[in-house]
Specification:
The chain is globular. The strands form 5 sheets. Strands 1-5-4-3-2 form a 5-stranded mixed beta sheet, with no helix packed on it. Strands 6-7-8-9 form a 4-stranded antiparallel beta sheet. A 4-stranded antiparallel beta sheet has the order 10-11-12-13, with no helix packed on it. A hairpin with a 5-residue loop joins β18 (293-303) and β19. The chain is mainly β and 343 residues long. It is built from 2 helices and 21 strands. The chain has helices at 6-16, 90-95, and strands at 37-38, 47-51, 54-59, 68-72, 77-80, 103-110, 113-120, 128-135, 148-156, 168-171, 177-181, 188-193, 208-211, 223-231, 234-241, 253-259, 280-283, 293-303, 309-317, 323-333, 339-341.
Protein backbone atom coordinates (compact mmCIF):
# COMPACT_ATOMS: atom_id res chain seq x y z
CA UNK A 1 0.00 0.00 0.00
CA UNK A 2 1.38 3.42 -0.88
CA UNK A 3 2.12 5.62 2.10
CA UNK A 4 0.81 9.21 2.14
CA UNK A 5 3.19 11.86 0.89
CA UNK A 6 4.56 14.50 3.25
CA UNK A 7 2.03 16.98 1.83
CA UNK A 8 -0.85 14.64 2.66
CA UNK A 9 0.49 14.02 6.15
CA UNK A 10 0.91 17.75 6.67
CA UNK A 11 -2.70 18.37 5.66
CA UNK A 12 -3.92 15.70 8.09
CA UNK A 13 -1.80 17.14 10.87
CA UNK A 14 -3.21 20.60 10.29
CA UNK A 15 -6.79 19.28 10.38
CA UNK A 16 -6.10 17.41 13.58
CA UNK A 17 -4.34 20.27 15.35
CA UNK A 18 -6.23 21.83 18.27
CA UNK A 19 -7.58 25.31 17.84
CA UNK A 20 -5.89 26.58 20.99
CA UNK A 21 -2.45 28.12 20.73
CA UNK A 22 0.56 25.98 21.49
CA UNK A 23 2.74 26.79 24.48
CA UNK A 24 5.84 28.70 23.36
CA UNK A 25 8.15 25.89 24.51
CA UNK A 26 6.33 23.21 22.47
CA UNK A 27 7.33 22.43 18.87
CA UNK A 28 4.63 23.15 16.28
CA UNK A 29 2.56 20.11 15.33
CA UNK A 30 2.59 20.87 11.63
CA UNK A 31 6.33 20.39 10.99
CA UNK A 32 8.01 17.53 9.18
CA UNK A 33 9.94 16.80 12.37
CA UNK A 34 6.69 16.20 14.25
CA UNK A 35 5.78 13.46 11.74
CA UNK A 36 9.07 11.55 11.59
CA UNK A 37 8.74 7.93 12.69
CA UNK A 38 10.65 4.66 12.63
CA UNK A 39 14.36 4.16 13.24
CA UNK A 40 15.34 7.71 14.17
CA UNK A 41 17.90 7.02 16.88
CA UNK A 42 20.77 6.86 17.49
CA UNK A 43 21.69 9.16 14.60
CA UNK A 44 24.82 11.30 14.65
CA UNK A 45 26.14 13.50 11.82
CA UNK A 46 23.54 12.66 9.14
CA UNK A 47 23.68 13.41 5.42
CA UNK A 48 20.88 12.76 2.97
CA UNK A 49 20.49 11.97 -0.73
CA UNK A 50 17.74 10.67 -3.00
CA UNK A 51 18.04 7.84 -5.53
CA UNK A 52 14.87 7.29 -7.53
CA UNK A 53 11.93 7.20 -5.12
CA UNK A 54 14.02 6.40 -2.05
CA UNK A 55 15.67 8.78 0.38
CA UNK A 56 18.91 7.61 1.97
CA UNK A 57 20.48 8.90 5.19
CA UNK A 58 24.06 8.02 6.12
CA UNK A 59 25.46 8.76 9.57
CA UNK A 60 28.22 7.99 12.06
CA UNK A 61 28.37 4.32 13.02
CA UNK A 62 27.84 2.80 16.46
CA UNK A 63 29.75 -0.22 17.75
CA UNK A 64 30.64 -2.53 14.88
CA UNK A 65 28.16 -0.78 12.57
CA UNK A 66 30.51 1.56 10.72
CA UNK A 67 28.52 4.18 8.79
CA UNK A 68 24.83 3.66 9.48
CA UNK A 69 22.25 3.60 6.68
CA UNK A 70 18.55 4.50 6.77
CA UNK A 71 15.97 4.71 3.99
CA UNK A 72 12.54 6.25 3.54
CA UNK A 73 10.01 6.41 0.67
CA UNK A 74 8.53 9.70 1.84
CA UNK A 75 10.95 11.52 4.23
CA UNK A 76 8.67 10.47 7.13
CA UNK A 77 8.96 6.71 7.71
CA UNK A 78 12.58 5.65 8.30
CA UNK A 79 14.02 2.13 8.34
CA UNK A 80 17.54 1.25 9.37
CA UNK A 81 19.58 -0.89 6.96
CA UNK A 82 22.84 -2.79 6.99
CA UNK A 83 25.95 -0.72 7.75
CA UNK A 84 28.31 0.02 4.88
CA UNK A 85 31.34 -1.26 6.80
CA UNK A 86 31.78 -3.63 9.74
CA UNK A 87 35.56 -3.25 9.94
CA UNK A 88 38.02 -0.48 9.18
CA UNK A 89 39.99 -0.77 5.93
CA UNK A 90 43.60 -1.86 6.47
CA UNK A 91 44.98 1.52 5.47
CA UNK A 92 42.84 3.29 8.09
CA UNK A 93 43.88 0.97 10.93
CA UNK A 94 47.51 1.56 10.09
CA UNK A 95 47.15 5.33 9.59
CA UNK A 96 45.12 6.02 12.74
CA UNK A 97 46.20 3.66 15.54
CA UNK A 98 43.54 3.14 18.20
CA UNK A 99 40.61 4.06 16.00
CA UNK A 100 37.76 1.60 15.65
CA UNK A 101 35.02 3.74 14.11
CA UNK A 102 33.99 5.81 11.12
CA UNK A 103 32.47 9.23 11.63
CA UNK A 104 30.58 11.94 9.80
CA UNK A 105 30.10 10.64 6.24
CA UNK A 106 29.23 12.71 3.18
CA UNK A 107 27.37 11.37 0.13
CA UNK A 108 27.21 12.61 -3.46
CA UNK A 109 26.77 11.29 -7.00
CA UNK A 110 29.73 12.00 -9.29
CA UNK A 111 30.68 10.61 -12.70
CA UNK A 112 28.22 7.72 -12.51
CA UNK A 113 29.15 6.53 -9.00
CA UNK A 114 28.11 7.46 -5.49
CA UNK A 115 30.96 8.89 -3.45
CA UNK A 116 30.96 8.38 0.30
CA UNK A 117 33.63 10.35 2.13
CA UNK A 118 34.13 9.33 5.76
CA UNK A 119 36.30 10.24 8.78
CA UNK A 120 38.62 8.08 10.89
CA UNK A 121 40.05 9.51 14.11
CA UNK A 122 40.16 9.26 17.90
CA UNK A 123 38.56 11.73 20.30
CA UNK A 124 40.62 14.81 21.08
CA UNK A 125 43.32 14.13 18.50
CA UNK A 126 43.97 15.64 15.09
CA UNK A 127 45.77 12.53 13.89
CA UNK A 128 42.84 11.94 11.58
CA UNK A 129 42.07 10.84 8.06
CA UNK A 130 39.33 11.07 5.49
CA UNK A 131 38.72 8.09 3.24
CA UNK A 132 36.56 7.49 0.19
CA UNK A 133 34.29 4.62 -0.81
CA UNK A 134 32.25 4.41 -4.03
CA UNK A 135 29.35 2.36 -5.38
CA UNK A 136 27.33 2.44 -8.63
CA UNK A 137 24.06 2.31 -6.66
CA UNK A 138 22.66 2.83 -3.17
CA UNK A 139 20.12 0.01 -3.50
CA UNK A 140 21.37 -3.08 -1.62
CA UNK A 141 19.03 -5.25 -3.71
CA UNK A 142 20.56 -4.15 -7.01
CA UNK A 143 22.87 -6.73 -8.65
CA UNK A 144 25.70 -4.20 -9.00
CA UNK A 145 25.50 -2.90 -5.43
CA UNK A 146 28.99 -2.94 -3.93
CA UNK A 147 31.00 -0.41 -1.97
CA UNK A 148 34.62 -0.18 -3.07
CA UNK A 149 37.06 1.50 -0.72
CA UNK A 150 39.24 3.97 -2.60
CA UNK A 151 41.63 4.65 0.28
CA UNK A 152 43.05 7.79 1.87
CA UNK A 153 42.03 11.26 0.68
CA UNK A 154 43.37 13.72 3.29
CA UNK A 155 45.25 13.16 6.54
CA UNK A 156 46.26 15.43 9.41
CA UNK A 157 48.57 14.94 12.39
CA UNK A 158 49.92 16.95 15.31
CA UNK A 159 52.12 19.02 13.00
CA UNK A 160 49.04 20.34 11.16
CA UNK A 161 46.81 23.21 12.27
CA UNK A 162 43.60 21.44 11.18
CA UNK A 163 41.73 18.22 11.88
CA UNK A 164 40.85 16.01 8.88
CA UNK A 165 37.32 14.98 9.82
CA UNK A 166 33.78 16.07 8.81
CA UNK A 167 34.16 16.07 5.00
CA UNK A 168 31.75 17.68 2.56
CA UNK A 169 32.03 17.52 -1.24
CA UNK A 170 30.83 20.12 -3.75
CA UNK A 171 31.33 20.96 -7.44
CA UNK A 172 31.42 24.72 -8.03
CA UNK A 173 29.82 26.60 -10.91
CA UNK A 174 33.08 26.43 -12.90
CA UNK A 175 33.17 22.64 -12.60
CA UNK A 176 35.96 22.49 -10.02
CA UNK A 177 35.71 19.85 -7.30
CA UNK A 178 36.21 20.71 -3.63
CA UNK A 179 36.24 19.07 -0.21
CA UNK A 180 35.63 21.10 2.93
CA UNK A 181 36.50 19.64 6.33
CA UNK A 182 37.58 20.46 9.84
CA UNK A 183 36.91 20.34 13.56
CA UNK A 184 38.37 22.65 16.25
CA UNK A 185 42.09 23.59 15.85
CA UNK A 186 42.26 26.55 13.41
CA UNK A 187 38.86 25.78 11.94
CA UNK A 188 37.42 24.74 8.61
CA UNK A 189 39.46 24.22 5.46
CA UNK A 190 38.82 23.77 1.75
CA UNK A 191 40.82 21.44 -0.54
CA UNK A 192 40.58 21.38 -4.34
CA UNK A 193 40.16 17.84 -5.70
CA UNK A 194 41.04 16.11 -8.94
CA UNK A 195 37.67 15.36 -10.59
CA UNK A 196 38.50 11.82 -11.67
CA UNK A 197 40.00 10.51 -8.43
CA UNK A 198 38.11 12.59 -5.86
CA UNK A 199 41.43 13.20 -4.08
CA UNK A 200 43.53 16.37 -3.72
CA UNK A 201 44.46 17.94 -7.04
CA UNK A 202 47.79 19.05 -5.59
CA UNK A 203 48.70 17.09 -2.44
CA UNK A 204 51.24 19.78 -1.49
CA UNK A 205 48.84 22.72 -1.84
CA UNK A 206 47.91 24.58 1.34
CA UNK A 207 44.20 24.36 2.12
CA UNK A 208 42.02 27.47 2.06
CA UNK A 209 40.73 28.64 5.45
CA UNK A 210 36.96 29.29 5.33
CA UNK A 211 35.85 29.49 9.00
CA UNK A 212 37.37 29.54 12.46
CA UNK A 213 36.60 30.60 16.02
CA UNK A 214 39.50 32.53 17.46
CA UNK A 215 40.39 31.57 21.03
CA UNK A 216 43.17 32.38 23.50
CA UNK A 217 46.29 30.27 23.13
CA UNK A 218 45.55 26.75 24.31
CA UNK A 219 41.81 27.43 24.57
CA UNK A 220 39.08 25.46 22.79
CA UNK A 221 37.80 26.76 19.46
CA UNK A 222 34.63 24.75 18.80
CA UNK A 223 33.75 24.88 15.11
CA UNK A 224 33.21 21.86 12.85
CA UNK A 225 30.99 20.10 10.31
CA UNK A 226 31.18 22.32 7.20
CA UNK A 227 28.59 21.93 4.46
CA UNK A 228 28.56 24.18 1.36
CA UNK A 229 25.45 24.84 -0.77
CA UNK A 230 25.18 26.68 -4.09
CA UNK A 231 22.03 28.82 -4.27
CA UNK A 232 20.97 32.14 -5.76
CA UNK A 233 24.38 33.24 -6.97
CA UNK A 234 26.00 32.62 -3.58
CA UNK A 235 27.82 29.78 -1.91
CA UNK A 236 26.43 29.14 1.58
CA UNK A 237 28.56 27.63 4.34
CA UNK A 238 26.88 25.88 7.27
CA UNK A 239 28.97 25.06 10.33
CA UNK A 240 28.35 23.79 13.86
CA UNK A 241 29.49 25.89 16.81
CA UNK A 242 30.04 24.86 20.44
CA UNK A 243 29.80 21.32 21.84
CA UNK A 244 28.11 18.15 20.64
CA UNK A 245 28.11 14.66 22.13
CA UNK A 246 27.00 15.63 25.66
CA UNK A 247 23.43 14.37 25.36
CA UNK A 248 20.81 16.85 26.56
CA UNK A 249 23.62 19.05 27.90
CA UNK A 250 25.00 19.62 24.37
CA UNK A 251 25.33 23.27 23.35
CA UNK A 252 25.74 22.63 19.61
CA UNK A 253 24.06 25.00 17.15
CA UNK A 254 24.32 25.69 13.42
CA UNK A 255 25.34 28.94 11.76
CA UNK A 256 25.38 29.96 8.11
CA UNK A 257 27.17 32.54 6.00
CA UNK A 258 27.42 33.30 2.31
CA UNK A 259 30.04 34.29 -0.24
CA UNK A 260 30.16 35.04 -3.95
CA UNK A 261 33.28 32.86 -4.18
CA UNK A 262 33.47 29.28 -2.96
CA UNK A 263 36.75 30.12 -1.23
CA UNK A 264 35.09 32.88 0.79
CA UNK A 265 34.99 35.13 2.67
CA UNK A 266 31.75 33.80 4.19
CA UNK A 267 29.72 36.45 5.99
CA UNK A 268 26.63 36.36 8.16
CA UNK A 269 23.56 38.44 7.46
CA UNK A 270 25.01 41.18 9.65
CA UNK A 271 28.31 41.06 7.76
CA UNK A 272 30.16 39.15 10.48
CA UNK A 273 32.95 37.00 8.99
CA UNK A 274 32.97 33.28 9.72
CA UNK A 275 36.76 33.46 9.81
CA UNK A 276 36.25 35.43 13.03
CA UNK A 277 33.56 33.23 14.57
CA UNK A 278 30.69 35.09 12.90
CA UNK A 279 27.77 34.01 10.74
CA UNK A 280 24.01 33.92 11.30
CA UNK A 281 22.24 31.40 13.51
CA UNK A 282 20.38 28.86 11.37
CA UNK A 283 19.45 26.04 13.80
CA UNK A 284 19.29 26.54 17.54
CA UNK A 285 17.27 24.90 20.30
CA UNK A 286 15.07 27.14 22.40
CA UNK A 287 17.15 28.21 25.39
CA UNK A 288 14.36 27.37 27.84
CA UNK A 289 15.24 24.31 29.88
CA UNK A 290 12.03 22.49 28.94
CA UNK A 291 12.90 22.43 25.24
CA UNK A 292 12.89 18.76 24.21
CA UNK A 293 15.47 18.63 21.39
CA UNK A 294 18.83 20.10 22.30
CA UNK A 295 22.01 20.89 20.40
CA UNK A 296 20.83 20.82 16.76
CA UNK A 297 23.85 20.52 14.55
CA UNK A 298 26.11 18.74 12.08
CA UNK A 299 23.74 19.73 9.31
CA UNK A 300 23.51 18.36 5.78
CA UNK A 301 21.36 19.48 2.85
CA UNK A 302 19.03 18.01 0.24
CA UNK A 303 17.88 19.88 -2.85
CA UNK A 304 15.05 17.55 -3.88
CA UNK A 305 13.86 16.75 -7.38
CA UNK A 306 10.77 18.92 -6.90
CA UNK A 307 12.95 21.95 -6.17
CA UNK A 308 12.33 21.93 -2.42
CA UNK A 309 15.21 22.21 0.03
CA UNK A 310 15.65 20.34 3.32
CA UNK A 311 18.21 20.46 6.10
CA UNK A 312 19.02 17.21 7.92
CA UNK A 313 20.72 17.25 11.31
CA UNK A 314 20.84 15.55 14.70
CA UNK A 315 19.56 16.83 18.03
CA UNK A 316 19.52 15.31 21.52
CA UNK A 317 16.15 14.21 22.88
CA UNK A 318 15.66 15.12 26.54
CA UNK A 319 12.74 12.72 26.71
CA UNK A 320 14.98 9.79 25.65
CA UNK A 321 17.98 10.30 27.94
CA UNK A 322 19.58 12.71 25.50
CA UNK A 323 19.70 10.21 22.63
CA UNK A 324 20.96 11.67 19.30
CA UNK A 325 17.95 11.75 16.99
CA UNK A 326 17.39 12.23 13.26
CA UNK A 327 15.76 15.58 12.44
CA UNK A 328 14.73 16.97 9.02
CA UNK A 329 13.33 20.42 8.32
CA UNK A 330 12.05 22.05 5.11
CA UNK A 331 13.92 25.22 4.19
CA UNK A 332 12.24 28.30 2.74
CA UNK A 333 14.16 31.16 1.18
CA UNK A 334 13.03 34.53 2.50
CA UNK A 335 12.49 37.75 0.60
CA UNK A 336 15.86 38.85 1.95
CA UNK A 337 17.48 35.92 0.14
CA UNK A 338 18.39 34.07 3.35
CA UNK A 339 17.29 30.55 4.30
CA UNK A 340 14.93 29.78 7.17
CA UNK A 341 14.43 26.26 8.52
CA UNK A 342 10.88 25.27 9.53
CA UNK A 343 11.86 23.10 12.49
Amino acid sequence: MRRPTFTAWLALALLAAPACAQQPSQPPRDTLNSLLTGDLTPTHDPVIIRQGDTYHVFSTGHGKRLIETRTSPDLIHWTIGAPIFTALPDWARQAIPGSDGMWAPDISFVNGRYRLYYSVSTFGSNRSAIGLATSPTLDPKAPDYQWRDEGLVVMSDKSDDFNAIDPNFIIDREGRHWLSLGSFWTGLKLFELAPRSGKPKDPKAKPVAIARRPAPAGGPAPVEAPFIIDHGGYYWLMASYDYCCKGAASTYYTVIGRSKAITGPYLGKDGSPMLEGGGSIFLRADLQEQQRFRGPGHAGWLHDKDGKDYVVYHAYDKQANGSPTLRIAPVRWGADGWPHADY
